[in-house]
Amino acid sequence: MRDEAERAVETLLSHIGEDLKRPGLERTPRRFVGALEELTRGLREDPPEIVFFPVEKSGPVIVEDIRAVSLCEHHLLPIFLSISVAYLPGSEAPGLSKVIRLVKWAAARLIMQERFTEWLADILLEKLRARAVAVKVCGVHTCSYIRGVKEEHHLMITEARRGEIDVKLRCRRPVCT
Ligand SMILES: [Zn+2]
Questions:
Q1: CA of 116 to the centre of ligand 1 (A)
Q2: Any idea where the GTP cyclohydrolase I domain is (predicted)?
């Protein structure tokens, strides 16, 4: 299966006019398949197990600026993301590092940002056993930099909420461009 994937990359390289015999490309198909696997590991791995701690009563918890890289499902090009989440814990609160790992797991796949944001809100509500959640996703879509739109500093911002949660999430620029 992996061999076939590497051969498919060779086909793509030939298609764009590359010389497969030149030394610089010797390990490129293998590296590309490896990078693609890493960028989409969320498709094959189970979501991280969440550890919970009892809490008496808690206001909103905000985790800002979780960095992740997804692939756009239309062009298979990277989307650099800064994701901020807020949640109102139930009777138990999730550990911080697990929240971050869950967001990074969710992002590791092909996405359309609008749909991804809604789905992430659902996942967080369920997996964090939260009473309410808010999600803000800020994305730099490399496909829109390369194709057509030459607006150099655009950032796509999407938000989703589940339940009542009174927070204002900020947006960070995920890469310096
Ligand atoms: Zn795209």
A1: 14
A2: 6-168
CATH of the domain at 107: 3.30.1130.10
- For β-strands 61-72 and 110-111, DSSP reports them as parallel
Note the maximum CA span of the chain: 65
| pLDDT at residue number 177 | 47
Q: What does the pLDDT read at residue 176?
A: 54
Taking a 5 Å cut-off on Cβ, the residues next to ion ligand 1 are: 72, 74-75, 143
* Average pLDDT over every residue of 118-129: 97
Pair 67, 99 in one domain:
yes
Give the SS3 label for residue 53: strand
Task: Please answer whether residues 140 and 123 qualify as being in contact, where contact means their C-beta atoms are separated by less than 8 angstroms.
Answer: no
Look up the domain containing 12 and give its range.
2-39
Q: How far is the CA of 73 from the centre of ligand 1 (A)?
A: 6
Cα gap 124→26, rounded to integer Å = 42
Q: Count up the domains in the chain and report the number.
A: 2
Q: What is the arithmetic mean of pLDDT over 91-117?
A: 96
